[in-house]
Amino acid sequence: MCEERASGSLRTVSGITAVVVLGLAGLFAISSICNALWAMWVNDPLKSIGGLIPIVSLVLILRVWRSLHWEMNGTWWGLAIVAPTIAVVHVRDQAVVEMVLSPSWSIVLPPYSLVAVAYVAGIVLLFGGLRLLRVAWFPVALMWFVNPVPHFFNRYIDLPLQHASAVIARTFAHRSEEH
Q1: How many other C-beta atoms can be found within 10 angstroms of the C-beta atom of residue 171?
Q2: Cα 164 to Cα 175: distance, rounded to the nearest angstrom
Q3: Is residue 132 pLDDT above 90, yes or no?
Q4: Contact 165, 158 (CB under 8 A)
Q5: How wide is the angle at C-alpha 127 spanned by C-alphas 125 and 132, nearest 5°?
Q6: 50 pLDDT higher than 80
Q7: How far is CA 39 from the centre of its chain?
Q8: Distance CA 123, CA 78 (A)
Q9: pLDDT at residue 114 tops 90
Q10: Following DSSP, what letter does each residue of 75-111 receive, concatenated?
Q11: What is the number of other CB atoms lying within 10 angstroms of the CB of residue 5?
């Protein structure tokens, strides 16, 4: 009995390890998005918190999966999500697909966040199945925040607030010099 349990847990550990390794290896198919996210997290202090999101999401998905006793009820429908995601990323690598909303505001398609959510949802569905995807909806949706502060926020909210703060600070500094 003990040998069966040890053998079963060994198969479970090796199976989960294989799933995590295959999921991480699949990131090479969308490496341009991964590299762009890494560059954003490293170079922009306002967006650096986004680098923690994939780690937290992975830990939460594994925690939920453990609560389901590591059920491997994967479905090929996960591949139907992952494959188009990879294809769209490769099209994006070859040609710039951009939606121009105004001369100063455009969105490159697909957004990094959408690729992250689609990839993780596909991998969870491919290996864990629909039940795991339903239970792990929060960690999958959390991947939307790999880019925590969109560009329009910087341009239309953050920079004007910084400018207003500088003007107010300068005004107070000049008034204190007068007194």
Answers
A1: 10
A2: 17
A3: yes
A4: no
A5: 55
A6: yes
A7: 14
A8: 6
A9: yes
A10: -THHHHHHHHHHHHHHHHHHS--EEEEETTEEEESS-
A11: 9
Nearest to 62 by CA among 138, 118, 126, 136: 136
Q: How far apart are CA 47 and CA 38, in angstroms?
A: 10
- Sequence letter at residue 127: F
Cα distance between residue 59 and residue 32, in whole Å:
24
Q: How many CA atoms lie within 13 A of 62 on its CB side?
A: 14
Using pLDDT thresholds of 50, 70 and 90, give the confidence band for residue 178.
confident
Pick 178 or 34 by higher pLDDT. Answer: 34
Burial class (CB within 10 angstroms; exposed 0-12, middle 13-18, buried 19+) of 140: buried
Q: Which residue type, as a one-letter code, is found at position 151?
A: H
| Helical segments of the chain, H only | 2-25, 31-43, 53-67, 77-94, 112-127, 130-135, 137-142, 151-153, 159-178
CA gyration radius for the chain?
Answer: 22
Identify whether 110 is preceded by a cis peptide bond (ω within 30 of 0): yes
8 A C-beta contact, residue 114 and residue 89:
no
| Six token digits for residue 51 | 């680098």
* Owner of token pair 């939460």: 60
Contact 120, 57 (CB under 8 A): yes
Fill in the DSSP letter of residue 5.
Answer: H
